[in-house]
Design goal:
Elements (H helix, E strand, L loop, with lengths): L11 H18 L4 E6 L16 H15 L4 E4 L10 H15 L6 E3 L8 H4 L11 H14 L5 E2 L5 E5 L2 E5 L9 E2 L2 E2 L11 H12 L5 E5 L17 H13 L2 E5 L9 E5 L7 E6 L6 E5 L2 E5 L15 H6 L10 E8 L4 E8 L4 E5 L1
Parallel strand pairs: 1-2, 2-3, 6-9, 9-12, 12-14
Antiparallel strand pairs: 1-15, 4-5, 5-6, 7-8, 10-11, 13-14, 15-16, 16-17
Length: 364
């Protein structure tokens, strides 16, 4: 039985704050082509902290759920690091399942990207045999499978890339933790917390999804950005190739993309965008625990702030969040967004609540 968002119990201060935010943003997004309720990096865990990550990551998901019920939201979005991955595997899996139960609780569709913390490798790093790391089936069965099973939900590929269309728009969500996993001598071949990348196989899926967009403009989403502001790569494997594929789509090119000869990430990607007429609107990401917008070769990268609490005095807190002076049980504790695209006006608007900029608008 579906759970109506109005029946969700959320904290009183959050209900007041998000209610005021909804009242303010509603007239600005009504009638848009696509409205997304978006959070990223909840880093949920059982161990409680008043200055850093804790079980409030799950509360932020519930609060996003409540907010989505107050607004004309088309999709709920989580851009990865649902869990912190720093506890024994049974605890992390429990936290992951709690979050997914919230996303599955009503008929509003959702799309979720895989983050580099979601395989519990942060916990496994503490163990000599790297024990406690999830096998790939854990995220696939608990997240990608229910995503794919939604009525009217997204297409989900073999490599964890997802696609859905909304009117004149196509939304493609990438898996920047597309890392081929093997256990060698009882130890995992890659630490996924420290390794970001996309395989040539996923880039071929992306090329096909872009070619199939036709006249639609395309929004790209992922946990991690492919590039940095300075033009350096944001992923360990195939970041430049991913970026160049998006450029090729904008320039309506055809050809082959060389991903090198690495046995896990190498190969050739064929693309043909000659029959398309849309463009890449933006590449939305999280991961860096900051808020930033920049363009590299005409591709707009937009970073969204971490939802999870990052207290000012914690050693790992980023400069952006230190300036926010985030405090538990206040609106600064969380950070989230409503992303609204008016394709007729060619306008991308990002409205933030909590530890986020109130309004960012971009023409495309």
């Amino acid at each position: 039985m579906a759970l109506h968002p109005r029946n969700i119990t959320i904290r009183r201060f959050a209900k007041r704050d998000l209610g005021a935010f909804a009242q303010w943003v509603r007239p600005q997004i009504t009638g848009a082509t696509l409205n997304l309720a978006l959070i990223t990096d909840t880093h949920d865990r059982t161990q409680f902290s008043r200055t850093f990550y804790g079980p409030n990551g799950f509360w932020h998901v519930q609060e996003q759920h409540w907010l989505a019920g107050e607004l004309p939201i088309d999709w709920r979005v989580h851009l990865g690091d649902l869990v912190d991955g720093s506890e024994p595997s049974f605890l992390t899996l429990w936290r992951l399942k709690n979050i997914m139960n919230d996303y599955k609780a009503d008929s509003l569709p959702f799309v979720i990207a895989k983050g580099n913390h979601d395989d519990n490798d942060k916990y496994a790093e503490k163990n000599r045999r790297f024990s406690g790391s999830f096998h790939p089936w854990v995220f696939n069965e608990n997240v990608f499978l229910p995503m794919k099973a939604q009525v009217g939900g997204p297409f989900v590929s073999l490599h964890g890339l997802s696609v859905f269309d909304q009117g004149t728009l196509r939304v493609i969500t990438l898996n920047t933790s597309d890392i081929p996993v093997r256990w060698v001598g009882g130890r995992k071949n890659y630490d996924l917390k420290k390794t970001l990348g996309v395989t040539a196989g996923q880039l071929q899926e992306l090329a096909d999804a872009l070619a199939g967009a036709g006249s639609r403009n395309v929004l790209i989403m992922a946990h991690a950005p492919a590039m940095t502001r300075s033009g350096k790569v944001g992923l360990r494997f195939n970041a430049r190739q991913l970026h160049e594929l998006l450029r090729a789509y904008n320039e309506k090119l055809s050809g082959r993309l060389n991903c090198g000869s690495d046995p896990d990430f190498g190969g050739q990607v064929r693309f043909d965008f000659a029959e398309t007429s849309g463009q890449v609107i933006a590449y939305l990401a999280g991961h860096w625990h900051t808020e930033e917008d920049f363009a590299v070769n005409g591709i707009h990268y937009s970073l969204q702030n971490v939802s999870a609490l990052m207290g000012r005095n914690h050693a790992l807190t980023t400069r952006f969040n230190r300036r926010q002076n985030r405090v538990i049980a206040t609106p600064s504790e969380y950070a989230g967004y409503v992303v609204s695209i008016d394709d007729q006006a060619r306008l991308l608007s990002i409205f933030g609540y909590g530890a986020a900029a109130k309004t960012r608008r971009f023409r495309y």
